[in-house]
Amino acid sequence: ELTFEILDEKGRKRQFGSVAGGGRYDDLVKRFTGQSVPATGVSIGVDRLLAALRAKGRVGGSSAGPVVVTVMDRDRMADYMAMVADLRNAGIRAEVYLGNPKNFGNQLKYADKRESPVAVIQGGNEAEKGTIILKDLILGAKIAENATLEEWKDRPAQVEIPRADLVAEVRKMLGQ
After folding, report:
1. How far is CA 100 from its chain centroid?
2. What's 116's DSSP letter?
3. Of 106, 101, 111, 104, which is closest to residue 68 (Cα–Cα)?
4. What pLDDT is stored for residue 90 in this prediction?
């Protein structure tokens, strides 16, 4: 039997119960099949592992969701996928909205449900100009909570930028 004890930064034992276990299971297979079969196995208690990581400060309580690239025109899905690929290649979590694109409001509701910090929007007009719109969903929600309509219009939580600046501008919005 092999056991590892988890110690905190001061060398004290931490108690989480069994986080993972495993070993040889030759006799277990033989019990059910009658044949001796070499076997090994392992299991991880995800709940306990997560509790241990949280207690050690290695996992935060929550993290921001992915950047959501909205779909204004299904025929341009390759363009939207390229945007997601650019973001992912830069180490930014991102996904394309795959639901029905006809109702833009539903796409933003989806982004809110996913706790997305930023939505990327590119309709036909923006595509012709080579631009995209970035909507800061966190700032937008804060402004909407406290601002009058006039103040909200003066401090829009979205910007139109060149498509080539997607990664740099998203990084700015994310504070990276």
Report:
1. 21
2. -
3. 111
4. 95
> What is the Cα Rg of the chain in Å?
24
pLDDT in tens, 18-63: 778 888 888 888 898 898 889 899 988 888 888 777 777 776 655 6
* Beta-ladder partners of 68: 95, 119
Q: Please enumerate in sequence order all residues whose Cβ is within 8 A of that of 172, keeping only pairs 6 or more positions apart, or say none.
A: none
- The type of residue at 57 is G
Q: Which residue has the tokens 């804060």?
A: 142
Spatial separation of the C-alpha atoms in residues 162 and 160, rounded to whole Å: 7
Alpha-carbon span 58 to 99, nearest angstrom: 34
Low-confidence ranges of the chain (pLDDT < 50): 152
- List of long-range contacts for 137-143, beta carbons under 8 Å, 24+ apart: 137/108, 137/111, 137/112
Map out the domains of the chain as residue ranges: 1-58, 67-174
- pTM recorded for the entire structure: 0.61
Kindly state which CATH superfamily the domain 67-174 is placed in.
Anticodon-binding domain (3.40.50.800)
**pLDDT of the residue at 125:** 94
Q: Which among 71, 89, 72 is positioned nearest to 166, based on CA atoms?
A: 89
Query: If we measure between CA atoms, which residue out of 71, 98, 94 comes closest to residue 171?
Result: 94
Phi/psi for 62 (5° steps) reads -150, 155
